[in-house]
Each structure stands twice: as structure tokens, then as C-alpha cells.
Amino acid sequence: MGNLKIYLKQSATYKIYRTCVRNLVDFMDTLGSIIIYGFATLRYILTFRVHRKELIEQCARFGISSLPITLSIVSMTSIIVASQVAPEMVKQGGGNFVGLLITMLIVREVGAIMSGFAIISMIGSSLASELATMRVTEQIDAIQVLKVDPIRYLFVPRILSGLIMMPLVVVVASVIGVLAGAVTTDLTTDLGYRAYFDSVWFGIYMKDLTVCILKAVCFGGTIALISCSCGYTASGGAKGVGLATTKAVVWSIVAMVIWDMLFAIAFFF
Questions:
Q1: Which pTM does this prediction carry?
Q2: How far apart are CA 7 and CA 11, in angstroms?
Q3: Is the dihedral of CA 242, 247, 250, 256 positive or negative?
Q4: pLDDT digit string (tens) for 85-137?
Q5: How many CB atoms lie under 10 A from the CB of residue 47?
Q6: For the chain, first and last CA: distance in Å?
Q7: Quick one: angle between helices 67-91 and 156-188, nearest 10?
């Protein structure tokens, strides 16, 4: 019987089973931490217990520092789409709808999604690695010894900056994307700027702008919350910092896609 147990534990099936169980436990543990820290942070936000100086610094970091990479990604995506779509639509007689199609794509999806990817890669990973380093070097323990709540001092300014700055970043990136699409359309087709911008107003409604801003708020808060939570619960030295950063990036991307799907079902299905 003992030999049978040893054989089973060495089998590939048992190893796959243990891996699945370990991943499931890690998933539930991470999800539970995110929910707990999210409610704790919300309590401080609703009671306006915020460190203003730290909030301003995080807003500058979340918004201004991420603008170059965000604008670059959104504008290049717009150029790629316009250079492929505009000539074909003109050939098919749909030149009057080129501006509408490109603008709708940017406002509804590209602006928020690509901005989210840029924020995750630059700001989210930075937040996770920063808090993870503080955890493994016992700086967070020192903060607690000084009777300072780490949630209020570390989580609240970062998450609130994500809620505030992400919509602004998405709006600016979307405007730049629409302009980049107009320039690309003018260079690749016979359509002028006037025809492009006249078609923009055919199908863009206030609903699209509202959904875009709401989506950006959810993206920003979720990215900051997940990044802070993964970094805060890190352990294991330098390896733990790397694992926490990777987990924060993966979880943020998955959460952002889920949010995007929910918004699509709720408002456009």
C-alpha cells in the first residue's frame, strides 16, 4: 500500500492534479485579498481620509508619466487601422463613413483598451514591484510599527489616482487617435479632412462618450487595486517581487478584458 502511494505521487496525473489545486488555491487567495483590500480602501475614500500630498504625487505618476507611451500606442494603432480600412472603404463606396468607423472604434474600444495596456505595463507593474519591495524589505512592517495604516497610506492614494487620472488619459489618447486617423486617411485616400470629420458625427452619441469614461474609471481603479494587492502580499525576497509583478500584470489584463466584455454586453448587446 505504501509503495502504491509513492507510485501515485510520482505519476504525471498526480502532479497535474497538485498543480491545478495549487493554482486554484492561489487564485482564491489572490481574489480574496483583492476584495478585502478593495473594501478597506473604499471605506477610507468614502470618508475622505486621504493623504493629499501623496495623492497629488500618484496622480502625476499615473497620468503625466504614462502619457507618452499611451499616446504613442493609441496613435500608432489608429494609424494602422486607418491605413488598412480607409482605402478599402473608399474603393467600396463607403468613403463618407471612414471617419465614423475609425472614431467609433477608438472611442468604444481602442482608446480605453490600449491605454489600459500601456498603464498596466508602465504603472501597474511599477506599483506592484514597489509595494512588493517594501514588503520583502520589511518597510511595510516598519510603517505598521509607527501605527500608520498601510491601506490608507499606500493603497488609497494609488487607487484614487487611478480612478481620477485614467479617464483623463483615455480622453486625451482618444482625441489623439482620432486626429492620427484623420491624417492617415488624408494621406492614403482622396478624402479630405472635412469629409472625415463630417462623418464623425453620423453615429457618435453621448452614450459612447459616457461608456468610454465609465470604462476608463473601472480600468484605472481595477489596475491600481490589483497591482497594489499583489505587491502588498508578496513574499520570498527578490523572486517574490518578480512573481508579484507578473501576477499583477496578468490579473490586470484579465480583469480589464472582463470589464470590457461586461460593458459591451450591458450597453451594446
A1: 0.89
A2: 6
A3: negative
A4: 888 888 888 778 888 889 988 998 889 999 999 999 889 999 999 999 999 98
A5: 8
A6: 57
A7: 30
